[in-house]
Amino acid sequence: MKNSLKFYSFCKVIIFNGILISSILACRPTPEANSQTETLLEPINDGPVVNAGFSQVFPAKKSVQLQGNVTYLGDSNSLKTQWQKISGPGNVTFQNPQLPNTTVQFSQPGTYVLQLTAKAGEQSITDQVTVQVKPISQAQIPAFSIFEQTFTHSGTYQNPYTEVEAIATLTTPNGETQIIPLFWDGGTTWKLRFSPNLEGSWKWSVQSNDAGLNNKSGSFQTIAAESKGGIRVNPEYPHHFIYQDGTPFWLLGDTHWTLFNNNPKENLDRNVVKQYIDTRAKQGFNFIHSNLMSLSQNEGGSAFDNISEERLNPGYWQEVDSRIKFLNQNGITSMLFLTWAKDGVSKNDWRAFPNEAARLRYARYIVGRYSAFNVAFTVAGEWNEYGKKSMYEQIAQEIVKFDPHQRLIGIHPGELSYSVAEFAAKDWMSFADYQQNYTQLHQRVLEQLKYNKPVVNSEYAYYLRDQNEDGKVDKPNSATLDDIRHSSWDIVMAGGYFVTGWGTTYFGGIRQPGPFNVNDPKNDDWEAQVQHIPKLFKTLDWWKFKPIDRRIKGEGTRYLLANDDQQFIVYVRNTNKPLSLNLELDTPVSYTLQLYNPRLGEFSDLPNFTGKNTIQLKPPTDEDWVFVLKKINK
Fold it and tell me: Which of 353, 418, 437, 585 could be bridged to 358 by S-S, CB 3.0 to 4.6 A?
């Protein structure tokens, strides 16, 4: 290491797993420690970080361990923690209800909801966990849920994050093996976090350079899944996505780069973030991408107390845990940008890591800590603003090597390039493109379909954003409701997906007049109309559609998606003159015909059609309209 702990000037009080540790020195080095160290923000002295653990199945009439966790940066004397039963058929006996990490017994089988509360001053934070108690002898968890095991290292280390290595090997019910890193969670605590995908008996063992972790082993039983799992590429229709259980997934994405941060000046904190997540979930969003270290501060402090010396702060990541858990509970996949290539706000970017080994260590940490969740990974935001292509390739390959869950992996371009096509053919790359593209939206999706992977335009508009506060919208495709609606349809009618955004929310309020505000009335119109896009597609077998624009003739902007001769979607705007759809059939076929209004989300039935050559489709006005044809199977 570069400097001894003696150079650090003050400490913070942290509670890990209910154990008070008052001598973790952190946060700010004194000048003699390292004159080149960047200036770090003061930690936010906010409410406690609370995590009640993950849903599990426990045996009845047996003491079992709860994996609660509380972190607090303030005065430890003011902190009170308490477990309580919220619901369940029997009595619950906590060995010590004031300790987050305690044992518990249940008097009878059933489903219980337990709540962990942490109070500090006027702040009261809660988190709940659902447990099922069954008359079985071995611990069980549903497939696609999270198994977590806690360990304690026995050695003495100045920096456990860099000095200790621990890898778990898991043996599947089929006898195959997988590996995943354990992650350091503060003090002497390490955790194994894993999401099994198969029913049956799993075994695990740990290999480590620390004697307290090495050769630890155990097993668990996996029962039938109670959720759909994470998302992956549909192997049969590779331009689209499915859940792990095979259910098709229509990606409706939003942007919140600072989702894991606090920013008091912009009214951004844990409660506001949860309100945002709840709002987006109710609007149908199932995908939100975020930067893990955008502002690098939350209720748990800074992501790294000193990134150049790899002084990772577990308290920050514990708060990230709770927010990702809340995303998943609301049915939202969290796309995690490991960090920006060059971040002008926090400076905690890929440039700040001291060397290659440090970057790979951080990638392994993120995989170990988060791959068990319903997440995806982006290696870097705006990668081409710093570093070589080979550096990011190496980070991506490290993720693949240590992620047994095989989560989606992407990379994101800066404005120097609208595309990441140079990575599209790589085995680790899950996407044909994860664009930042504001022009030629339709054509640039079509160009990337050749890689036979999904195409996502992840930055194409931020509705009504006014960064310099001059009263003028300063992002393309963002100034009017028509602009952003048209551009969104341009993307999906090419067979792609989009991640949208709003000026008041996409960067935590920083780049917009006024604070972060998911409820700003000026957002209402696009919040309503964006939901009309998946509403249409989900009435159809959208994953079977292919763009065939050549078969639709006429004036205006017009696109065609076709599912062989079974279903057709025709989108048109800027004309009210008839279009001609070439069916290219050998014999006459009958179709139902509907007109869809993308501004209102309303269907109107039109007369059925029977024919084999062409059908005339007349838009009512020169606004945007969608025609839907479905084959009548006799």
Answer: 353
